[in-house]
From TrEMBL:
This is DinB family protein. Residues 58-172 form the DinB-like domain. InterPro entries: DinB-like, DinB/YfiT-like. It holds the Pfam family DinB_2. It comes from Citricoccus muralis.
């Protein structure tokens, strides 16, 4: 694994919130009933095992495209963001979420330098924690809301859909 940072990956400024209701034509994601979301995270986390077992998991396919390892680190951290935001929506009235820059987080945490098996274990642990959290959400809880710093409002259900898409889309990105 390289010890010096690879070139930055260009940011994606597309507004992906359309996937919450419309699904994603790129990866095939379709929105799910809230009650099914808890299990989706755990099931999808197992698909990363083969991805991160590859000998080239840390190699970028192109200089400005994340490696499989970097995508896995991003998904792991998005799951932690989901957990934090769902807990806030369930415990507070209308929380506002600080901006989260996944590209900056990748550089800060040096995803390219991580151990693939440790990243896998952490991703699966985060997915299991999110699954347990979502299994405990009541019918009214799914409608609890919060707002991103850019003004976009989410419910527990729509935030969970958004991150479920994130996980599926990045599995698609790495060919899994």
């Amino acid at each position: 694994m390289p010890s010096t940072p690879p070139p930055p990956v260009p940011g994606d400024d597309r507004d992906w919130t359309f996937v919450i209701t419309d699904g994603c034509p790129d990866c095939g994601f379709q929105p799910l009933p809230p009650a099914e979301l808890a299990d989706v995270f755990v099931k999808r986390s197992t698909r990363w095992r083969d991805v991160l077992s590859r000998t080239d998991a840390a190699q970028r396919p192109a200089p400005t495209v994340w490696s499989r390892l970097e995508y896995a680190g991003h998904v792991r951290d998005m799951l932690a963001v989901l957990q934090e935001r769902v807990e806030a929506m369930l415990g507070q009235e209308g929380p506002v979420f600080a901006d989260w820059d996944g590209d900056a987080k990748a550089v800060e945490l040096e995803y390219w330098n991580e151990d693939p098996q440790q990243t896998l274990a952490e991703l699966q642990r985060s997915a299991a924690q999110v699954g347990r959290l979502l299994h405990g959400v009541t019918a009214l809880g799914w409608e609890r809301s919060g707002r991103r710093s850019d003004g976009m409002s989410f419910t527990v259900a729509t935030m969970s859909q958004y991150i479920a898409h994130e996980m599926e889309h990045h599995l698609h990105d790495v060919g899994a």
